[in-house]
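Weekly sync, protein design subgroup
Attendees: M.S., D.O., the rotation student, P.L. (late)

Item 1: inverse folding check
M.S. brought a backbone from last month's batch and wanted to see whether the design step gives back something sensible before we order anything. D.O. pointed out we never logged the input encoding, so this time it goes straight into the notes. Structure tokens as presented (517 positions):
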């Protein structure tokens, strides 16, 4: 065991631990079991590397500007109290930061996701890891902070209050890219369904009641538009999140940080991340106000709403509630303009929509399969709604120059991003790719539903259409059978009116009425 000290006292740590006394105290003080997200950890490594590279640039620029003031072989620069970090230490720090950026040594990051202190414990745990990895690279033992110090060296020209929020925004932007791609993948396969089933008729519902004729093409088209809006809104999040306060130090005033560092650190971060990060014009504002996180998460919440609605609709249409087992394809009912007797769907299914069977649904009910993918998405959506409330409330809890609740705010934001990426991916892979529509069943349901009579209003009026609807209900007839008995329309006229291309027109013209006469 090795011993480490801070001004509170002394603690023992395992000899090979890359974490130090600060992380250990945080682990004891914050007994949360939620794991800190590795994406944020990696982003801190990138920010740290940008700081070390900027330090090297600053050191080089200073020596070029004041060469005569640096005695040969000196490790100090004017004023004499300013110690330059040795080049070999800087290179070791950079390599250690690169390790963190790749996700290495994450097992030594022991600070939980929910912590107090505005992220100081997060920053110090990474500083300790970087310092100890650098020490090992130079052949030294972890904890030999007289050579490389977690605060004096690994944290040079940095503050928790600029490193942690900056790294959070970097992590968010990486996940936003992944979310954009995931939304596009889902949108593409949804559009394929839209095109494939453009003219496949189905009942349209209002308030869970059969209402008017529609099609599966219309059904999927509504979600194509919604997903397009989601993609557009997510793409705009980069503008809201890209402004960072790196170099602002404790409260955005840049205290104890060279002006050169404040101006240049962002350029190195841009190169390392290849992200459109930009330094805030008002570092105090960006340090104290976190409304950009509220705005970005509101966009995520809107996308979650659309995914929940889509999943709920598919779950309902594929359920036994919308597809009673008594439903059969009427061999005498047929699609206007096509041969009669379309036949039973392959496999004898009675469902108009069939979702993939992904896992057993019960430990006691044989043969039961549950809609687990929609249920997962709905569950995730509600977790995101809860995160939205948390982020809203805690961002408002910022006090004067700083918000102490950044750790849990950041965790909730990243968690929502990861959930949305997962939702899009599983909907595409585990639901949409093997989603099956049975047009003959949905068409049969439509022609047996009084909802179909709405299409006849321009031709026979409300009252005659109502008589036809009543006949269908009382005698359990489809619209063709009921019309043959009531003789409201000639058979060929009814067939023409109920063709998909006529049912799915956007409104009608007087010419349409004349053509049907």
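Designed sequence read out in the meeting:
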């Amino acid at each position: 065991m090795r011993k480490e000290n801070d001004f509170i006292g002394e603690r023992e740590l395992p000899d090979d631990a890359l974490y130090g006394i600060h992380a250990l105290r945080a682990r004891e003080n914050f007994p949360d079991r939620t794991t800190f997200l590795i994406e944020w950890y990696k982003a801190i490594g990138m920010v740290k590397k940008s700081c070390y590279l900027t330090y090297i640039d600053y050191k080089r620029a200073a020596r070029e500007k004041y060469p005569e003031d640096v005695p040969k072989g000196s490790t100090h620069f004017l004023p004499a109290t300013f110690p330059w970090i040795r080049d070999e230490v800087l290179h070791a720090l950079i390599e250690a930061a690169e390790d963190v950026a790749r996700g290495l040594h994450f097992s030594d990051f022991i600070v939980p996701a929910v912590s107090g202190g505005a992220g100081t414990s997060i920053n110090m745990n990474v500083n300790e890891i970087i310092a100890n990895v650098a020490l090992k690279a130079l052949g030294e033992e972890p904890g030999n902070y007289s050579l490389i110090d977690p605060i004096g060296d690994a944290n040079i020209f940095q503050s928790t209050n600029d490193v942690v929020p900056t790294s959070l925004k970097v992590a968010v932007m990486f996940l936003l890219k992944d979310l954009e791609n995931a939304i596009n993948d889902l949108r593409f396969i949804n559009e394929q369904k839209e095109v494939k089933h453009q003219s496949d008729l189905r009942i349209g519902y209002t308030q869970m009641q059969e209402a008017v004729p529609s099609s599966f093409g219309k059904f999927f088209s509504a979600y194509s538009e919604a997903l397009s809006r989601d993609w557009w809104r997510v793409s705009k999040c980069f503008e809201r999140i890209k402004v960072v306060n790196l170099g602002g130090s404790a409260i955005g005033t840049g205290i104890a940080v060279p002006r050169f560092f404040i101006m240049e650190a962002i350029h190195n971060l841009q190169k390392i991340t290849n992200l459109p990060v930009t330094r805030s014009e008002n570092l105090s504002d960006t340090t104290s106000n976190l409304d950009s996180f509220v705005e970005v998460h509101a966009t995520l919440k809107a996308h979650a709403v659309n995914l929940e609605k889509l999943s709920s609709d598919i779950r309902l249409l594929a359920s036994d509630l919308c597809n009673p087992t008594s439903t059969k394809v009427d061999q005498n009912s047929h699609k206007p303009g096509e041969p009669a007797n379309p036949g039973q769907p392959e496999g004898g299914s009675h469902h108009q929509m069939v979702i993939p069977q992904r896992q057993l649904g019960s430990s006691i009910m044989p043969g039961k399969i549950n809609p687990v993918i929609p249920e997962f998405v709905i569950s995730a959506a509600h977790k995101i709604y809860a995160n939205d409330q948390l982020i809203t409330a805690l961002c408002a809890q910022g006090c004067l120059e700083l918000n102490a609740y950044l750790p849990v705010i950041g965790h909730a934001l990243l968690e929502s991003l990861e959930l949305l990426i997962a939702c899009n991916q599983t909907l595409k892979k585990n639901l949409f790719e093997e989603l099956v529509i049975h047009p003959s069943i949905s068409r049969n349901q439509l022609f047996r539903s009084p909802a179909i009579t709405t299409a006849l209003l321009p031709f026979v009026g409300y009252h005659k259409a109502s008589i036809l609807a009543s006949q269908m209900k009382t005698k359990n007839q489809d619209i063709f059978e009921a019309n043959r008995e009531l003789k409201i329309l000639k058979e060929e006229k009814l067939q023409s009116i109920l063709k998909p291309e006529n049912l799915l027109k956007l409104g009608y013209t007087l010419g349409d009425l004349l053509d049907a006469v």
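Discussion: The first helix runs from residue 21 to 29. The beta strands are 2-5, 10-13, 76-77, 82-83, 201-206, 209-215, 243-244, 278-279, 353-354, 436-437.
Action: P.L. to compare against the previous round before Friday.
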